[in-house]
């Protein structure tokens, strides 16, 4: 009987490999998946790209690893408090045509919501390093239309349909482009004085500036749902163009002046009261007036009256 069982296993091994994983390989794959899971935090997520093959199947669609990284960035821009963990630390690892299929239950938390999803990764060993070939959730999983999955961001990520702003935003002498991913407005309520509206957005009223150059991190602007971007040229003589972001509200326009390379604000937002100071253009609000100097003009209330006030700012 033992001989029959041994021969049976050998036969299965020859035909199908028994789907058993070498204990050493299993431990290494498990460590890789655990590290990948732990990288799903706002601080660590920018480094997830290195875990993927150049082209992967990402939630059922073919994507480059750069596109995967962009989607991860958008996830944490929209939900900075997002976390995930492998439920009960249980991983099931099987061999799949020379690669490893890892299945587990992913418990996610975001915006006060907690949910479990049966998930999987397909992993291969390439030159001694593990890389992800496929990532997704089980087809029969429930609530796949929630905003944490790529399908919810798909329309926003199609940059071809967005207005592109061209410039050299990283100082390498080559042309890049930037575009804005705006939130989806779910409700607009007009206030009693009709001077402003209360706007609600799915996932929060935040906008994200995305760059075509993958080395430039996205810039998140909280509370912005309607916008316009401007190329402000090189203001601080670092060789890279700065970027201006207009946050447009019913009675105000605020100009954010960003160092595109670092994502840092070069000055406080320049606020214009458009109910009083109408039809102002960029040149009326912002000028480069010398080396490392800009002059900004904003609305200010003095003795009960709104006036335009100019200020010279020295840049670092």
UniProtKB/TrEMBL annotation:
InterPro entries attached to this UniProt entry: Integrin_alpha_N
Extent of the signal sequence: 1-23
Keywords linked to the UniProt accession: Signal
Protein known as: VCBS repeat protein
């Amino acid at each position: 009987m033992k001989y029959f069982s041994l021969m049976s296993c050998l036969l299965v091994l020859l035909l199908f490999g028994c789907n058993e994983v070498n204990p050493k390989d299993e431990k290494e794959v498990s460590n890789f998946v655990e590290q990948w899971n732990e990288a799903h935090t706002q601080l660590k997520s920018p480094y997830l790209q290195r875990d993927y093959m150049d082209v992967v199947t990402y939630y059922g669609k073919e994507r480059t690893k750069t596109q995967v990284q962009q989607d991860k960035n958008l996830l944490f821009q929209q939900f900075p408090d997002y976390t995930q963990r492998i439920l009960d630390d249980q991983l099931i690892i099987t061999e799949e045509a020379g690669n490893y299929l890892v299945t587990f239950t992913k418990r996610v938390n975001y915006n006060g919501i907690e949910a479990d999803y049966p998930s999987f990764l397909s992993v291969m060993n390439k030159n001694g390093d593990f890389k992800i070939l496929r990532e997704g959730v089980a087809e029969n999983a429930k609530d796949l239309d929630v905003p944490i999955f790529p399908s919810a961001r798909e329309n926003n990520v199609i940059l071809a349909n967005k207005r592109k702003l061209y410039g050299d935003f990283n100082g390498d002498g080559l042309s890049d482009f930037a575009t804005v991913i705006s939130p989806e407005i779910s409700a607009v309520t007009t206030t009693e004085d009709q001077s402003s509206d209360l706007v609600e957005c799915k996932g929060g009223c935040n906008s994200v500036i995305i760059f075509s150059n993958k080395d430039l991190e996205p810039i998140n602007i909280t509370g912005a749902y309607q916008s316009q971007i401007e190329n402000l040229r090189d203001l601080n003589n670092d060789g890279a163009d700065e970027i201006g972001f207009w946050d447009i509200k019913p009675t105000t326009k605020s100009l954010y002046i960003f160092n595109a390379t670092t994502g840092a604000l070069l000055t406080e937002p320049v606020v214009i009261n458009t109910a009083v100071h109408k039809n102002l253009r960029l040149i009326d609000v912002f000028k480069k007036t010398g080396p490392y100097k800009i002059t900004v003009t904003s609305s200010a209330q003095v003795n009960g009256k709104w006036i335009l006030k100019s200020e010279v700012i020295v840049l670092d």
